[in-house]
Predict the structure.
Amino acid sequence: MIIFRRHIWRIQSITVLVLGAVMLFSCKTDQKEIDRIVSRADRPEMSGENLTLLYSDSARIKYKVITPEYNKYDKEGQKYDEFPKGIHAILYDKEGNEVGSLVSEYAKKLEDEMLWEIRNKVVVVNSEGKKLETELLYWDMKKEFLYTDRYTRFTSDEQLIEGNNGFESDQQLNNPQFKSVTGKIAESENQPK
């Protein structure tokens, strides 16, 4: 009986040793990939889903951002907020009245520069109904200024202006300037000539 138990113990030990060796050598992994997955530098400091963020100055709400996904990073000294699934931002004046909105499919806010990079199906509408459409827009919050070097489409009342080489304006779209106008419709059918 003692010999039988020793024999079973040897079989179990050999089986465990063989299975361990097979498992050890059967997995091939790239060390760089493991380091990337494990690295904390690639992960956000903070993240959330379905959030409403309020940005204020001197206890006054300047704008509100609604987003399905939010990530906050601090990589190599650069702090930024990323909105990989886009934003819906609402801007307010000093009295708290809504003065405009902005929608996009992606956005990134550089914290120290106070600069937004807004991409993919960007639409800005002010309280008067003026509308700007583009694929890339920069919003300088310090200067309250919008600009791009891409194709833009600007609609105001019965007027349509398109530009291929860029656009700039105050954030309320009151003073739009195009670098190269490619199309302009200034009159509607209802206007007297």
Observations:
- DSSP finds two helices and 14 strands in the chain.
- The radius of gyration is 28 Å.
- The mean pLDDT is 80.
